[in-house]
């Protein structure tokens, strides 16, 4: 098919992102391994295809896949299929070094490439308010911008290829560590007899304030409409946080940047996953500390 955009990876994030492209009037052909997501994109007006190679006539291809190996394989398949498009946009969170090397391969085939991982979660994907952290040339970014602005509210140029991924990993490294810190404090406070809401309101007007304390508090009932207040369901899963911490500590290791707390936090999330909490929101680490499943 010769749709303007080929979209690969219609999961929790990609499904909504493809819908927003379609709603803006962009023609979209899409591929995923899951038939259910192909059916969903078809009912939103997209063209489902049965292989990556079927997208070889698309001008732009966007990927929203789980991790590095999936994106590597997809780029290999596209190039083998003779894709001669203009622009490759990878919005998955992957290893920055892999991202940079894939961009190099695409560029040597005459195709522009940017890494454009996102923050904003599934809610942001649905509402079209994602933040894109972009690595690549200004001209490739400008070519991508009309698509990115349909799927997101903020587009930030972070540097050359790979810089978007590096930025995303720095953010999530700090976020993972901060969550565990907030959990330890609020768990201790409530055990000392404090009221969780009062404690949070003091923290949030004091020096320990952060996103996990203020907007996404891990103690049930402190914030409304967050995973902690619905048994840690439908949030940012432990397995995804673990994936990002593995990528972050690996990237840090490659430049000999020490991440002692990152490593410890990664181990904590690995233990949560081993205890069957992989699908639960990453605030569930409070239950892990209390050995409450
Ligand atoms: P997901 O697991 O829901 O979706 C991934 C999709 O890719 C699935 O539909 C799967 O069937 C498909 N897929 C896997 N291998 C494939 C292949 N070889 N070819 C075609 N399709 C394939 O994941 P998600 O939550 O949508 O996340 C996607 C990416 O975005 C990840 O890199 C994640 O780290 C990142 N991210 C997620 C969130 C979030 O809150 N979920 C937030 C920011 C960034």
Number-wise, the strands total 9
Major beta sheet summary:
6 strands, parallel
User: How far apart, in Å, are the first and last alpha carbons?
Assistant: 48 Å
- Percentage of β-strand residues: 5-15%
- The CATH architecture of the largest domain can be named as 3-Layer(aba) Sandwich
Shape: globular
Output the radius of gyration: 20 Å
pLDDT < 50 stretches: none
Give the SSE order as H and E letters: EHEHEEHEHEEHEHEHHHHHH
Task: Find the CATH topology of the largest domain.
Answer: Rossmann fold
Top-tier CATH class of the largest domain: Alpha Beta
> What topology, given as strand order, has the largest sheet?
3-2-1-4-5-6
Q: What structural class results from the helix and strand content?
A: alpha/beta
């Amino acid at each position: 098919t010769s749709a303007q955009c080929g979209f690969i990876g219609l999961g929790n994030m990609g499904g909504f992102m493809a819908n927003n492209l379609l709603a803006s009037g962009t023609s979209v052909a899409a591929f995923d391994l899951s038939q259910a997501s192909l059916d969903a994109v078809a009912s939103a007006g997209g063209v489902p295809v049965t292989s990556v190679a079927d997208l070889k006539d698309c001008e732009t291809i966007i990927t929203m896949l789980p991790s590095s190996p999936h994106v590597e394989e997809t780029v290999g398949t596209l190039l083998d299929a003779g894709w001669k498009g203009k622009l490759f946009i990878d919005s998955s969170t992957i290893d920055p070094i892999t991202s940079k090397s894939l961009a190099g391969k695409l560029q040597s085939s005459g195709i522009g490439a940017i890494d454009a991982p996102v923050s904003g979660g599934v809610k942001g994907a649905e509402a079209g308010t994602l933040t894109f952290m972009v690595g690549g040339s200004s001209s490739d970014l400008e070519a991508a911008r009309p698509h990115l602005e349909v799927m997101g509210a903020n587009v930030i140029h972070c540097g050359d290829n790979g810089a978007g991924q590096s930025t995303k990993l720095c953010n999530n490294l700090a976020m993972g560590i901060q969550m565990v810190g907030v959990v330890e404090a609020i768990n201790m406070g409530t055990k000392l007899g404090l009221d969780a809401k009062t404690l949070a309101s003091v923290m949030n007007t004091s020096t320990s304030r952060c996103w996990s304390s203020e907007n996404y508090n891990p103690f049930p009932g402190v914030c409304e409409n967050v995973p902690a207040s619905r048994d840690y369901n439908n949030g940012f899963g432990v397995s995804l946080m673990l994936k990002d911490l593995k990528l972050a500590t690996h990237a840090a290791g490659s430049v000999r940047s020490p991440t002692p707390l990152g490593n410890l936090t990664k181990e904590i999330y690995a233990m949560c996953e081993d205890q069957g909490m992989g699908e639960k929101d990453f605030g569930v680490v409070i239950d892990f500390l209390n050995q409450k499943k």
